[in-house]
Amino acid sequence: MERCPVRLRFAILTLMFLTACGGSGLGPSGPTPIATPQVTTHPVTFVAFLDENANGVYETNEGTRIPGAELVVGAVKGTTAAKTGEATLQIPAGSATLTVTAASLPPFYRPPANITVSVPATAQVLVPITLPRGSNRANVYMAFGDSITNGEPGVGDGNGYRRMLEATLGGHFGTAEVANRGRDATYSTDGADLISRDLSNIQPAFVLVYYGTNDWNDLSCRQLPCFTTVALRSIVRQINQRGSHAFLASLLPINTDYDNRAPASRNEWVVAQNTLIKQVAEEEGAVYVDTHDAFMKSGRALPALFVDHIHPTAVGYEIMSQTWFSAITKAYSKILSTS
After folding, report:
1. Stretch (H or E) spanning 138
2. In the Cβ-directed half-sphere of 239, how many Cα atoms lie within 13 Å?
């Protein structure tokens, strides 16, 4: 028998080795990869708006937009923008379901039921967000308190924090009104007596409560707890009963040693009062707004934040405005009213 040449035998052995290892000897090893099909997506623009009459339908007078709402369609998420309430998501063609993350909404606002969307969409998809408020006026915030709420003549524009807050809320939601019910030299007990009438006259969706600073001047309140917490609890309950929503502020620090009205012991009293005020807010369903903490963490010495022993400077009022704004607009999953 004729023997194979050495080169031919080597070639045969090499081919046998490659075949045993899964190769063909003719190209790259392994199966040919299968191309992943490309999923075609389409941009869909959603607009989150305040559905004032809760009928699920957008109407031309419903101009309030809801920024910060997280919209979810399958694995796709987006967050609505300030003032416009818009978010554009890339979604595959077909029928899709939109949900709104409840915990992404500001305090007291509620998400809609799931919304079915046909993609590609021929127009913007309007997303109705509701706010339980009874007969109260949407977008109206009542600033309720003593002279710190009312503002000091010659300090800033003389309106305290109110006009600044109105401007920033308007720039965020698209519209806002901050009504003044600040009264000089009043106590929290005065507030408890006055709140019902003010709620009837203003009919606000929200009430921004700042009361208690002047209570120090009543000697019976130097020992805590005193009438402050009883009065604030009454105020919040009356707000809730009218279908409105309460934001309850902590007391500002005192400009210690400005004069004999501001001893160091008064700031200790303020800190203790704020613990009780926070408890009232938590128990009565109000949003606690820590203006005291904002002042203490501002990086400024207290004398730079006050024109006297208790009234803020223009800078101090700006801090108050920013703190109210943050509380009103932040994502807040704790309170989802069912009424």
Report:
1. strand 137-145
2. 28
Is the distance from CB of 244 to CB of 199 less than 8 angstroms?
yes
Delimit the CATH 2.60.40.1120 region(s) of the chain. Answer: 41-129
Comparing CA positions, the residue from 108, 48, 11, 22 lying closest to residue 334 is: 108
d(CA 320, CA 296) in angstroms, rounded, equals 12
Task: Provide the sign of the torsion angle of the four alpha carbons 289, 295, 298, 304, taken in this order.
Answer: positive
Dist CA 131 CA 111 (whole Å)? 9
How far is Cα 99 from Cα 256, in angstroms, rounded to an integer? 51
CATH topology of domain 137-329: Rossmann fold (3.40.50)
Taking only the tens place, the pLDDT of each residue in 133-182 is 999 999 999 999 999 999 999 999 999 999 999 999 999 999 999 999 99
At the top level of CATH, which class does the domain 41-129 belong to? mainly beta
- Mention every residue, 6+ apart, whose C-beta is less than 8 A from residue 318: 161, 164
